[in-house]
Amino acid sequence: MSSPVLNLGAYRFVALGDLPALRQRLFASAAAAGIKGTVLLAEEGINLSVAGTESATRGWFDSELRTDPRFAGLQTRESFSDAVPFRHLRVKIKREIIRMNRPRVCPAAGRAPAVDASTLARWLDAGYDDDGREVLMLDTRNGFEVDVGAFEGALDWRLARFSDFPDAAAARRGGLAGRTVVTYCTGGIRCEKAALVLRDAGVPHVWQLDGGILRYLEQVPGARHWRGRCFVFDQRESLDASLEGRTA
Asked: N or C: which end of the chain has fewer CB within 10 A?
């Protein structure tokens, strides 16, 4: 029997200016649909991870977000579970949708180049990118997440929190010279900011993995070059390469 609960994640860096009204609208409609999870709103954009029945979750997302021109291009990450892996519904207004404490880092003003999952898999098969440069995967997640699973040979700076990344990049950028660096994280939001930090630090060949690990596991047959499980911040704790996870 198929798992009845749809887990849906998405984010977008886009300028938002009506945060209290938007928060109220999204909370009311999600609560009415029986959806649980977390939606973060900030002036820099939206970041959400929610779950509910498939029909209710898709219906809420399509009616409340896709109809808003600011969110029309939202790309979702989907997986299924046997139960809702969240206890509550929270819609919060934050200073950042992913905390880095670097307000100058603004993906809405211009993204770093993104590489899709199938192209990255091809690069990793070969060991170099389309220009012949060695490919280096750089994990932008916290150390405890990396311990659960990671790309083969990925660089791990043992971050305690994502806000440590800019200082780590400034201290270690010399070791990235001459390579194509691909930043990655769970769903794409951290590696998007991280790629901009590296670019601003003078690293010339930087890409972000579009959609993060979850998109890679979804689109690359056999999830080659990935080892272990993918840590997630809900009651499932981690997903296997087929995006399966059970609630605790």
From this structure: N
Q: Where are the beta strands (DSSP E) in the chain?
A: 5-13, 36-42, 45-53, 77-81, 89-93, 114-115, 135-139, 149-151, 155-156, 180-184, 206-209, 226-228, 230-231, 238-239
One of 106, 185, 191, 230 is an active-site residue; which one? 185
**Is 191 one of the annotated active-site residues of the chain?**
no
3 state DSSP class of 188: coil
Q: Does any domain span residue 65? A: yes
| Cα 109 to Cα 104: distance, rounded to the nearest angstrom | 10
**Could you tell me the two tokens for 161?**
């929190």
Residue 224 DSSP class = T
Which has the closest alpha carbon to 39: 63, 55, 23, 18? 23
Residue corresponding to tokens 């010399």? 174
Per-residue pLDDT tens digits for 139-178: 999 999 999 999 999 999 999 999 999 999 999 999 999 9
Average pLDDT, the chain: 95
CB proximity list for 15: less than 8 A, separation 6 or greater:
43, 44, 45, 70, 108
C-beta neighbour count of 67 within 10 angstroms: 9
Domain-located, residue 246:
no
Count of domains observed in the chain: 2
Distance of CA 125 to the CA centre of its chain: 23
- Residue 148 backbone phi and psi in degrees, to 5: -80, -35
Using alpha carbons only, how large is the chain's radius of gyration in Å? 18
Q: How many helices (H) and strands (E) does the chain have?
A: 7, 14
Q: Which two tokens stand for residue 39?
A: 């939606």
The pTM of the whole model exceeds 0.90: yes
* Domain limits for position 131: 107-239
